[in-house]
Amino acid sequence: MVKICGIGAGYVGGPTMAVIALKCPSIEVAVVDISHSRISAWNSEKLPIYEPGLEEVVKQCRGKNLLFSTDVEKHIFEADIIFVSVNTPTKSSGLGAGKAADLTYWESAARMVADMSKSDKIIVEKSTVPVRTAEAIEKILTHNSSKGVKFQILSNPEFLSEGTAIQDLINPDRVLIGGREGPEGHEAVLKLKGIYDHWVPEDKIITTNLWSAELSKLADNAFLAQRISSINAMSALCEVTGAEISQLSDALSKNTKIGPKFLNASVGFGGSCFQKDILNLVYICESNGLIEVANYWKQVIKVNDYQKSRFVNRVVSSMFNTVSGKKIAVLGFAFKKDTSDTRKTPAIDVCKGLLGDNACLSIYDPRVSKDQIHKDLSMDSEVKHVSIVSDAYEATKDAHGICILTEWDEFKTLDYQRVFENMQKPAFVFDGRNILNVDKLTKIGFIVYSIGRPLHQWMNNIHQP
Ligand SMILES: NC(=O)c1ccc[n+]([C@@H]2O[C@H](COP(=O)([O-])OP(=O)(O)OC[C@H]3O[C@@H](n4cnc5c(N)ncnc54)[C@H](O)[C@@H]3O)[C@@H](O)[C@H]2O)c1
Ligand SMILES: O=c1ccn([C@@H]2O[C@H](COP(=O)(O)OP(=O)(O)O[C@H]3O[C@H](CO)[C@@H](O)[C@H](O)[C@H]3O)[C@@H](O)[C@H]2O)c(=O)[nH]1
């Protein structure tokens, strides 16, 4: 029986390994992590991450061909194929701080693999890594392992999106496998391909050289983020010209050369990947002397930062240029709907911006815990300016304004007449996700701001810094 070890039981490692176990009953999959709390959550009724459909997959396979363990060494030792899905955050200090990928976790995983391996193994890079990381990993492995043990490194980047991870894994657009040229590299690629062959159609499995696979992942995220910054840049222009962003998106989407996805204007993109991976790309460009290319990609992040601060300025300037002491309801904190993940969520910057102007925030998110929000806003529980509540009506009661920061479906169907009656007047809605019916809300009496839509006359005469 083929044995797989997945190192890293996070948003990628957990769901990807669970789907491999589901689709390949003849393969034994062990998911290992150094975090005891994460592993015990994977072994419990309440999984450490929320993803639609994940619980069903885990329940179906756990205890059969899927196990979660902290015994990293044992499972590395036993495995034929090792998938590494550890975190690769942005470096926070030292050379490349604020841009380069921090490969500390990757290196420590590689060293453990070198120490524990007594037989040949295939090492699969699932984490997003800088191009040519495989070369560094090969060096760590060959210089530290027992004599005669051979490793083949493959790049198999993951393209799942949070909130649709299971769907994306079961029915991927494509699976990318990069390997070394030559017969041994080729054989390793075929072995990994053999796993995906259990459920992914042949024409969706793309094989490339190692460096193309590694760089494709960074390019993929950079292109996606660039599209959001492009539509967000247009949203600013729409607001001052009377054009409407949803009509613009619709018109663009009908151009088959452009296509319909990733054209929703928003308060800004968030999530653990986009900013980190673009910064990583910028660092690689700069390190190779490609300053113009680096500056091009940097601009995607600058526009995203601009969009978040533009939103905060719009809230403050609309409300008589001050939100000091005013209750603002924040609906949604996760970086997008259907996830409890708050990594790099635009809500953090918006909330901090509003707190900077002394607002009193009442935050509600259907999936994000109180503790997480406290951690993200780096505050202790005594802070009086933030309350975290368990219901949208409670959040909006007596509020002066509402900020929609995540596009949760339940915010579309709130009883806005009831919400309006319980708010201070004038009552403002700032829709950072364009999910509400502006006409309906305006008829109720709200003053509505919706990203990229013609401005309410209230805001029309207010100069935006
Ligand atoms: N989150 C996503 O949607 C997504 C999608 C595609 C790719 N990626 C990439 O996948 C990688 C993982 O992302 P994530 O969101 O799953 O991160 P995560 O932080 O949720 O999970 C990483 C896990 O690795 C564990 N870990 C770290 N070092 C370890 C070691 N030496 N041995 C065992 N376990 C170790 C950590 O404890 C953690 O539980 C990153 O490179 C990310 O860029 C993420
Ligand atoms: O039209 C859009 C689409 C997305 N977003 C925002 O962009 C961010 C990222 O969204 P999404 O890409 O759906 O989620 P992620 O889970 O971060 O997935 C991205 O990052 C992953 C990690 O690398 C990749 O695997 C995926 O392919 C890539 O889509 C979120 O804040 C969204 O609200 C918009 O503002 N407008």
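^ nicotinamide-adenine-dinucleotide complex. The CA atoms of residues 152 and 184 lie 8 Å apart. The mean pLDDT is 95.
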